[in-house]
Specification:
It contains eleven helices and eight strands. The protein is an alpha/beta fold.
Length: about 300
């Protein structure tokens, strides 16, 4: 009898990761996902062990405590007249702030402001940035505490109004009294799409954009992307990577200031340290590149 309680990601078949991607993006429901996992014939590995490895465990994702003495976190509202009227997000400020600092908008995945994304905001504040992570689900009461409901809630909202909420949040943050006026954006999955979108629709306001495994803005908007933009992609992420050649062709044709990195053996979501898709080496490398990029382009002048 196998008594394993944890699973090495290398033991999980790629097919299982692909099914999880479908499930996480709402293409299949939880029952279908679990049924497919149950169909895998993997010696010594139970369905419970595989599913627990793939599904998020947000306790794993806390790298910076919300009680950390170097930061202060609050919830702040902002006006979004073209979106859902009023938005809300998680603002994290360095406690040793002397005057003003550059700011970074942090954009969550397709399920609302979950604990992992809040932790990313705290990580940025620890590095001296003012970080703001809006919750697209605020008009519905906010992130509900679990991803299944959060995903359903976000799918029920109008995409264009969500986009307007994040545009409004970007403007609010850029004009914040503690901000230097230099603004970056980083986002993951859906948030990667929003980061690409803001780079296209707000090129004068966004000083540096970092989309993680996100699809590009619509083709009619892509020519407006000027950069600087740093794009992180996972080499096992077929769905997103299929969009890259055409997007890169546009960025080249307009002489946009862009960088792209593909991460070897990485899955979609490799930066998220709450599931087995997490790749510590690739996450750390991409995050250091992101911090260096923000320090370069958001520095005080």
């Amino acid at each position: 009898m196998n008594n394993k309680s944890t699973l090495d990601p290398k033991e999980i078949p790629q097919q299982a990761f692909d099914w999880y991607d479908e499930y996480a993006h709402g293409d299949i429901n939880r029952r279908t996902f679990m049924t497919r996992l149950g169909s895998l014939s993997i010696t010594g590995l139970s369905l419970g062990l595989i599913s627990s490895a793939l599904l998020p465990d947000y306790a794993k994702a806390e790298q910076v405590s919300f009680n950390d003495a170097d930061i202060k976190a609050t919830y702040e509202t902002f006006d979004s007249p073209k979106g859902y009227g009023t938005g809300n997000g998680y603002l994290v400020v360095p406690t040793n702030l002397n005057g003003t600092a550059p700011s970074v908008l942090v954009v969550h995945e397709n399920r609302g402001l979950n604990p992992y994304v809040k932790d990313v905001a705290r990580r940025l504040a620890k590095q001296g940035f003012i970080a703001f992570a809006p919750d697209a689900l605020y008009s519905l009461g906010g992130y509900p505490g679990n991803d299944d409901d959060g995903r359903s809630m976000q799918r029920s909202l109008q995409r264009d109004k969500i986009e307007q909420d994040f545009m409004a949040a970007a403007n609010w943050l850029k004009q914040h009294k503690l901000s230097t006026g230099k603004l970056g954006v980083v986002g993951f999955c859906f948030g990667g799409y929003i980061s690409n979108l803001l780079a296209a629709t707000m090129p004068a306001q966004i000083d540096a954009a970092v989309p993680y495994y996100g699809t590009p803005a619509s083709a009619d908007l892509q020519t407006a992307v000027k950069g600087p933009i740093m794009i992180h992609l996972a080499d096992q992420d077929k769905r997103v990577n299929e969009t890259w050649p055409d997007y890169e062709a546009v960025l080249k044709s307009t002489n946009a200031n862009y960088q792209v990195y593909f991460y070897e053996d990485a899955q979609h979501g490799f930066h998220n340290d709450s599931t087995s898709r997490y790749s510590p080496k690739n996450a750390e490398l991409s995050w250091q590149r992101t911090l260096d990029f923000f320090n370069q382009h958001l520095a005080k002048v």
